[in-house]
Amino acid sequence: MKSYQRILSGVRPTGHIHLGNYLGAIRNWAQMSLETKEQLFCIVDQHALTTVVDSENLKENTRTIAAAYIACGIDPKKSAIFAQSHVSAHTELSWYLSCFAPLGWLNRMTQFKDKAGKNKENANLGLYAYPVLMAADILIYKATHVPVGEDQKQHVELARDLAGSFNSYYKKEIFPLPEPIISKETARIMSLRDGTKKMSKSDVSDYSRIHLLDDADTITLKIRKAKTDSDPIPSSKEGLQNRPEAENLMGIYSALSAENIDALCSEYSGQPFSSFKNALTEILIESLRPIREKMQHLLQHPDELDKVLYDGADIANLLAEKHIKEIREVLGMIPRR
Ligand code: TYM
User: Fold this and answer.
1) How many CB atoms lie within 10 A of CB 256?
2) Within the chain, which residues score under 50 in pLDDT?
3) CB 215 within 8 A of CB 206
């Protein structure tokens, strides 16, 4: 069994948590937790401010992500589940790392280019500096492994580069070099409306994604409306090439059933996508039902969710405070009283 030393990951509490977040990230965290000594799962509420300033819903969105973590199998007794804003050392380290981050490295970040779009001059500084705060989220705990979807790989690599340059400047192994852990099959779950775009919380169309809180009727409708092409199901995986929507739907089924795509193709070979969609709808409903029900139950008890977050922050703060003291010392600051 593979063993990880300390894992850290997080989700932004913006919009609806969806199937891509589950298959690409949270499901793997729950699995890795069984093989890890220490794990920290953060709800990155400060990151949320870079794109949506939604103070009315931020508390509720944060609790919803905490509920999703638990409902997807993360045990709060074994893992620290906490809000980023409850551990001040993240933002403090972020500043120190900013002073090490060459603009050239930040200019390469593709997610900033995507999110800022053509309106780069009006994008906020937080959005630009986001990868440095993300590096601080990871490095403040000296995390060794970071399980994420493909879209976050570049950010984890930046954290790794910053850790390396900090260590070599101070000639001390302060940070381990964190490794991204990406599950190949579910690295990039695509939009149900456009198989060339990833499933995303920020897509304007709810039909582009399955939310973890969607009920059976909504899932049925979304899969019925999901885009496919007019060709039948091919007899093997190769036949899915250049058919992004078809490949995505079969990939989702395969991820939920653990049946490989070749086996699925031979089972449905020659059939229209409409018959496969019935099977996909069924497996989605059955797989997500326990998660939805558990989330709904947890969300009825916000005080208990807050208690999980407070307890998680206590654990996270212990570790973060120890590390930030060491970092301040290395930076040459007068120790605090
Ligand atoms: P966020 O909130 O966009 O997404 C949370 C996690 O879900 C993964 N993911 C996907 N995986 C597969 N297919 C998809 N369509 C899909 N959409 C999202 C993401 O890769 C991510 O793992 N910057 C991060 C949050 C963050 C973080 C961190 C992560 C902040 N600090 C420190 C790890 C470590 C983000 O915006 O994720």
Assistant:
1) 19
2) none
3) no
What tokens does 246 get?
Answer: 């078809």
| Site residues for ligand 1, CB cut-off 6 Å | 8-12, 20-21, 24-25, 44, 47, 134, 137-138, 146, 148-149, 151-152, 155, 188-189, 198-199
Joined tokens for residue 186: 């579910």
Domains for the chain: give ranges and CATH numbers.
4-181+301-331 (3.40.50.620), 206-297 (1.10.240.10)
What does the pLDDT look like over 102-124, one tens digit per residue? 999 999 999 888 888 888 888 89
Q: At what angle do helices 125-139 and 153-170 cross, to 10 degrees?
A: 70
Q: How far is the C-alpha of 309 from the C-alpha of 162, rounded, in Å?
A: 29
pLDDT for the residue numbered 2: 63
- Average pLDDT over all residues of the chain: 95
Q: In the beta sheet, which residues pair with residue 6? A: 38
Distance of CA 26 to the CA centre of its chain: 7
- List C-alpha distances in Å: 45 to 54, 133, 162, 302, 309: 11, 12, 23, 17, 12
